Prior knowledge:
There is one protein chain. This protein is α+β, with helices and mostly antiparallel strands. It has 2 domains: 1-32 and 180-343, Phosphoribosyl-aminoimidazole Synthetase, Chain A, domain 2 (Alpha-Beta Complex), CATH 3.90.650.10; 34-178, CATH 3.30.1330.10. The chain has helices at residues 19-30, 50-54, 73-80, 86-98, 119-136, 203-209, 212-216, 218-223, 231-240, 253-257, 279-287, 292-298, 314-323; strands spanning 37-38, 46-48, 62-69, 104-114, 139-147, 163-173, 189-194, 245-248, 266-270, 303-309, 328-336, 341-342. A 6-stranded mixed β-sheet has the order 1-2-3-6-4-5. Strands 8-10-7-11-9-12 form a 6-stranded mixed β-sheet. A hairpin with a 7-residue loop joins β1 (37-38) and β2 (46-48). The longest helix is centred in the middle third of the chain and has 18 residues, at 119-136. It is globular and about 55 Å long.
Amino acid sequence: MAKAWSYEKAGVPHLKGDPSYNQKITRLIRSTTIPGVRGSATGFAALFDLNESVGVDRNVPLLVASTDGVGTKLEIARLQGRHDTIGIDLVAMCVNDIITCGAKPIFFLDYFASGKFEPRILNQVLKGITSGCRQAGCALVGGETAIMPGFYSHQKNPAAGLYDIAGFAVGVVDRHKVIDGKSIREGDILLGVASSGFHSNGYSLLRKIFNEHELRGKIGRQLLTPTRIYVRPVLELLRQMPLRGIVNITGGGLIDNLPRVIPAGLRPTIHEGNWPKPKLFDLVAESGNITTFEMMRTFNLGIGLVLMIRASDVKKAQAILRGMHLASWPVGKITRGKGVEIL
């Protein structure tokens, strides 16, 4: 029997679902609080009220900020010799967090660090970042390029210029229209919106399951598909109907991310057979001998975003998304209880 893989066996702990870890970082984060800080210390995005901080007009919108990276998906880009999609991932990972509170991204900054200056690779990455910014409707206003010889290097080829990237996005939201999950009620539907693939999570595990030959070939090309950016669809939905909660399915998958916005006493009940899972997810589960629970806790399984809405709004929301070429499915509902229920 093939080895049973998990994200932790691949070297990555499930920190989002670890209460003790979250408590520790929350205490540290709160020690820096100043007037203006709003929202949860462990939420998808950070909110800041300029009125409380500097006393501006009370009608000014709240600032919303998020930062993220692309992770070891960068290694797939290296093996494929293609770097023009990675920048899209970088923008997506940040702006998709920002929209979970109903905010519109307005500007973006990037950080690029490499052991060697390679203009071709840097230009490809920047091309992707600008493409992602255009998709999200935000401006790239600055960034930093750091060349660090001897720090980022490949074990087999010390001369190779490996790199890492990080992104920072800022948006705005009307202070009276913040989506924080507090209005979620029992019976609300979990409407899952199709992902473009694995997005930018779980790649340390994927790299254990597939060998280098596979990652340089067709499977690698599929895994390099950029993360879908949901900004325009979500803003269009908000223009036409209320959304009670929005969850970006990133690291932690459906299991760890859904509970982050649901009020105490309620839980997400997921109906596993309610949506078609892309075949590559099945191949991963089979090749890595991975349990259903571990798959749901590591990957998005074809659901990149979950909207929590009234049952009466489901058909309208699906029609709007369909008009924007996005498939969606009712993947579950809000029920009474704790944790996550999988049926």
